[in-house]
């Protein structure tokens, strides 16, 4: 903990300090507890998991506070909080000191909460003029904060010496819109330059059992005794660790940036702490041995995650994986290279919420290699799974592509990220834009950088709250983001798929287990299929365009500017329509009607005649990690159907029974693919496929240029279409529709679709 040894005399006004006036930090923190001698304070960790972003403190704070900020003079200046020493229930007193970024401080990461800011602290303020100092000019002014931050200040306060912290809610003047914008833009530097990031999880409670979980974490990290911990007597300890993984802090989208940039991070709760590295390893071991741990009596409760390895999809494990791969750092923990694109970050970090939906993009913007400043990341290369350079997809000049096969997924090489590219592709936080415009900018950036349309198939867009429409006369500059109804006034377009359609749904659905099948397009820069036969979006200027309109001049911006009208114009081929379609495969159960559509009659005596197209469609003709579907899948499918009852194939039930390991492995792949999808037959070519849950008879099967998988479109008014979603069409996944055409035929058959 960084402390200040200066003796604070309340009768003498504190001078302005620069980085040389503050004490230098100690060596890297030892893994010891944070000292504290006060009584417990009840933590709000049971509050709803909808965190607040840096920009949306309510106006109630401003009305109650007595403290008035002095504007920051330095261009890259910040304020730091000197938290006075105190014990037990001593009032919390502190000073705000303007300084430079090279000052020694620790940054606090915490859950803001949704309660009112009713907890009083005192900030010392000198109100005299230069050359006329008096005790009468020393004021302790009231400042009100929310309960979890109040708990953190009491928990982190040193009983003997002041400590130096940076805390967003206090160190940023939340009433000054210009300062907020500039300080939020500096968040990367603020957390990157902090000596440590202190993560406050709240006081120990039943929902935050840190008093038992923290010591157990250290035992888990001792590999010499790890196997002994897999015994029933440690059930309560594993349960405590599982509860800790559900702490509301892990639901905040901003924590990804705060933690990923940290040189060193410490988890704090009450009077104890644990190093982030220990916690991260403990979580990794938990997930690695989850199949054994879940069988320990009492570890799993009725409301616990589904036993089918969904524990690995909780926020902490996703955070551990993500922060391990975001950067390359030097020995001091300083970032020397950004590794992930913005598309990868937004597509991966769906387990985290933001109260302002635009922060779905903005909260991870500074972490991306294609939007970060050139002086932060060191290279332009894109690592591939085997460490080699990424192989570009065919530029589309020739209708022949022999580089792609099911065992060789397509790897896309993004543009090099120079300053000019940043001006073209980059996004900067702009809270004057509504959500639709921010999401359009993001999609445009993804398409431009990847030369692919796959982003329109990924479920990344936030679930937004519906607000009551406000009259224009009530809209003013001082309204909070939540009150600015125009942020979410326009519904998001169909080509901005919601996270609710993802494999594990929205963040609040994570504990309910799998909600949908895995995405067919695969992760960014690694396509699993090649339906458009290597054609890329930049092969022709007409392949992708965004519809625009002139902004309403009566609304916030008096100057007209081009904004999205919510449409996306794309080129492609209409290859067929949906004819027969089954019910959804709810919870991974393939009903008899779906098997019939696939050409199999469960009542047939000869169950060995499972059509090749059926079992391949059940696994989307791929094995795990996009490898070619193993030949033994066919035999496993025969056994699985023989084990089923009532003509339906209940994959989850058979997996849970776990009788035949080979069959279970096949069924696990089936479960991951078909969950909540529908089987269908096309009208003309009678092709078998898998469709999204909202698919209907008559939907159009299309291949869009630049999209690696087929999609379903639905005609609406004015000849436009909505995107129903991605689909699997057996025999159409690897460019077969286009490779059979000459260039002349392709030009004749292609058409433009306007998606809304």
From TrEMBL:
<feature type="region of interest" description="Disordered">
    <location>
        <begin position="373"/>
        <end position="410"/>
    </location>
</feature>
<feature type="region of interest" description="Disordered">
    <location>
        <begin position="1"/>
        <end position="33"/>
    </location>
</feature>
<dbReference type="InterPro" id="IPR010730">
    <property type="entry name" value="HET"/>
</dbReference>
<protein>
    <submittedName>
        <fullName>Heterokaryon incompatibility protein 6 OR allele</fullName>
    </submittedName>
</protein>
<dbReference type="Pfam" id="PF06985">
    <property type="entry name" value="HET"/>
</dbReference>
<dbReference type="Pfam" id="PF26639">
    <property type="entry name" value="Het-6_barrel"/>
</dbReference>
<dbReference type="InterPro" id="IPR052895">
    <property type="entry name" value="HetReg/Transcr_Mod"/>
</dbReference>
<feature type="domain" description="Heterokaryon incompatibility">
    <location>
        <begin position="105"/>
        <end position="258"/>
    </location>
</feature>
């Amino acid at each position: 903990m960084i402390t200040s040894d200066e003796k604070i005399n309340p009768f003498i006004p504190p001078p302005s300090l620069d980085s040389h006036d503050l004490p230098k930090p100690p060596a890297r923190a030892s893994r010891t507890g944070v000292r504290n001698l006060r009584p417990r304070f009840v933590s709000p960790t049971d509050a709803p998991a909808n965190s607040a972003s840096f920009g949306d403190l309510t106006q109630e704070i401003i009305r109650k506070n007595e403290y008035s900020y002095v504007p920051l003079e330095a261009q890259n200046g910040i304020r730091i909080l000197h938290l006075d020493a105190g014990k037990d229930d001593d009032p919390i007193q502190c000073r705000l000191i303007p300084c430079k970024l090279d000052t020694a401080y620790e940054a606090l990461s915490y859950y803001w909460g949704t309660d009112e800011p009713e907890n009083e602290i005192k900030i010392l303020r000198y109100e005299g003029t230069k050359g006329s100092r008096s005790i009468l000019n020393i004021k302790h002014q009231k400042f009100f904060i929310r309960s979890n931050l109040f708990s953190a200040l009491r928990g982190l306060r040193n009983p003997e010496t002041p400590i130096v912290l940076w805390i967003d809610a206090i160190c940023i003047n939340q009433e000054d819109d210009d300062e907020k914008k500039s300080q939020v833009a500096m968040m990367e530097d603020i957390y990157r330059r902090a000596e440590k990031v202190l993560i406050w999880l709240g006081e120990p409670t039943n929902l935050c059992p840190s008093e038992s979980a923290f010591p157990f974490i250290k035992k888990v990290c001792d590999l010499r005794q790890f196997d002994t911990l897999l015994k029933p007597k440690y059930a309560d300890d594993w349960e405590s660790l599982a509860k800790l993984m559900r702490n509301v802090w892990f639901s905040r989208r901003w924590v990804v940036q705060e933690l990923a940039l940290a040189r060193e991070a410490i988890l704090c709760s009450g009077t104890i702490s644990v190093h982030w590295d220990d916690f991260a390893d403990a979580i990794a071991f938990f997930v690695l041995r989850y199949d054994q741990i879940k069988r320990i009596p009492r570890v799993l409760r009725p409301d616990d995650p589904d036993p089918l390895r969904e524990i690995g999809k909780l926020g902490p494990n996703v955070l551990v994986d993500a922060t391990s791969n975001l950067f390359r750092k030097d020995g001091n923990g300083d970032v020397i290279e950004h590794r992930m694109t913005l598309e990868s970050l937004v597509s991966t970090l769906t387990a985290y919420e933001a109260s302002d939906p635009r922060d779905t993009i903005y909260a991870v913007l500074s972490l991306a290699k294609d939007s970060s400043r050139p002086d932060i990341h060191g290279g332009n290369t894109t690592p591939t799974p085997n460490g080699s350079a990424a192989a570009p997809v065919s530029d589309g000049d020739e209708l022949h592509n022999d580089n792609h096969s099911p065992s060789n997924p397509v790897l896309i090489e993004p543009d090099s990220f120079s300053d000019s590219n940043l001006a073209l592709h980059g996004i900067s936080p702009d809270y004057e834009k509504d959500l639709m415009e921010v999401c359009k900018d993001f999609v445009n950036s993804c398409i431009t950088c990847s030369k692919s349309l796959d982003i329109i198939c990924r479920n990344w867009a936030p679930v937004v709250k519906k607000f009551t429409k406000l009259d224009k006369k009530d809209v003013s500059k001082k309204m909070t983001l939540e009150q600015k109804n125009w942020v979410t006034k326009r519904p998001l377009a169909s080509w901005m798929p919601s996270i609710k359609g993802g494999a594990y749904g929205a963040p609040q659905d994570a504990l309910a287990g799998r909600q949908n099948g895995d995405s067919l397009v695969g992760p960014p820069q690694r396509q699993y299929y090649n339906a458009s036969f290597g054609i890329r979006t930049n092969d022709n200027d007409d392949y992708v365009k965004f519809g625009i309109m002139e902004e309403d001049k009566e609304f916030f911006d008096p100057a007209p500017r081009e904004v999205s009208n919510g449409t996306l114009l794309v080129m492609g081929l209409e290859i067929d329509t949906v004819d027969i379609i089954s019910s959804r495969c709810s919870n991974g159960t393939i009903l008899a009607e779906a098997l019939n559509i696939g050409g199999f009659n469960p009542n047939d005596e000869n169950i060995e005649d499972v059509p090749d197209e059926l079992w391949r469609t059940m696994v989307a003709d791929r094995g795990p990690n996009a490898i070619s579907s193993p030949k033994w899948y066919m035999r496993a499918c025969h056994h699985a159907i023989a084990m089923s009852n009532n003509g339906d194939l209940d994959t989850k039930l058979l997996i849970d029974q776990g009788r035949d390991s080979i069959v279970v492995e096949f069924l696990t792949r089936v479960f991951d693919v078909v969950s909540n999808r529908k089987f269908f037959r096309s009208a003309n070519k009678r092709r078998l496929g898998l469709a999204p849950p909202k698919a209907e008879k008559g939907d159009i099967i299309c291949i869009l240029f630049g999209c690696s998988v087929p999609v379903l479109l639905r005609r609406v008014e004015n000849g436009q279409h909505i995107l129903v979603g991605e689909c699997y069409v057996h025999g159409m996944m690897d460019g077969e529709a286009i490779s059979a055409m000459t260039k002349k035929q392709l030009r004749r058959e292609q058409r433009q679709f306007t998606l809304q």
